[in-house]
Amino acid sequence: MISLIAAALLAGTTPQGAASSPPAPAAALPSPERRQELLFEAARLGRTDLIAPLITAGANANARDRRGFTPVILAAYGGHRDTLDALLAAGADACLADAGQGNTALMGVAFKGEDAIAERLLAAGCDVNARNKAGQTALMMAALFNRTRQIELLLAAGADPALADASGRTAAEVARAQGNDMVTKRLASPAAREAAPTRP
């Protein structure tokens, strides 16, 4: 179904350098609600080719689906780097949290270990120390799943290992509870604390 919709949407676009052509008739396009659903689906499936046409057709790049996820979160969770780039280029907010637990795309890729996508989100200005509704940070997510490369990336970006979640656990304590001894030592080390920003 999405391929048929893609054809209708792309029929109304003009390749760079080509002569302009009349836009597709409104009746040929899906309803605004369906266009929004298709944007979520395109983000989830990594259909980069549909992002710009759908947003041009009126889909909201920062809307949330029924589960509370934004297109950016869906693309990032799926590991779709090109799709994420297309969303950001179209004006999507890289840092919006989901409507349920308050998790950001950066938190999601931290536990999945999607390092390249984390770099893109950090470059977009996302707060490395943002917290979800349980007080958890991306660093805690990475520590929970033993994502060592992600931990180094977050520390270099200013992640604060001294922050504690709502239950009072720091990232080092999260790692310790999982039996991740090397990560525990890294996060509890003076070097990790020195990498964190100075708080007033």
Model description:
It is built from twelve helices and no strands. By secondary structure, it is an all-alpha fold. The termini are far apart.
Low-confidence stretches: 11-19
Mean pLDDT: 88
Largest sheet: none
Count of DSSP strands: 0
Q: Strand percentage, roughly?
A: under 5%
Helical residues, percent? 40-55%
Radius of gyration from the alpha-carbon trace, in angstroms: 20 Å
Task: Give the key terms.
single chain; 200 residues; mainly alpha; 52% helix
Briefly characterize the structure:
With 200 residues, the protein is an all-alpha fold. Helix content is 52%, strand content 0%.
Q: Any chance you could write out the topology, listing elements then pairs?
A:
Elements lengths: L1 H10 L20 H14 L2 H9 L14 H7 L3 H9 L15 H8 L2 H9 L14 H7 L3 H9 L14 H7 L3 H8 L1 H6 L5
Helix pairs in contact: 2-3, 2-4, 3-5, 4-5, 4-6, 6-7, 6-8, 8-9, 8-10, 10-11
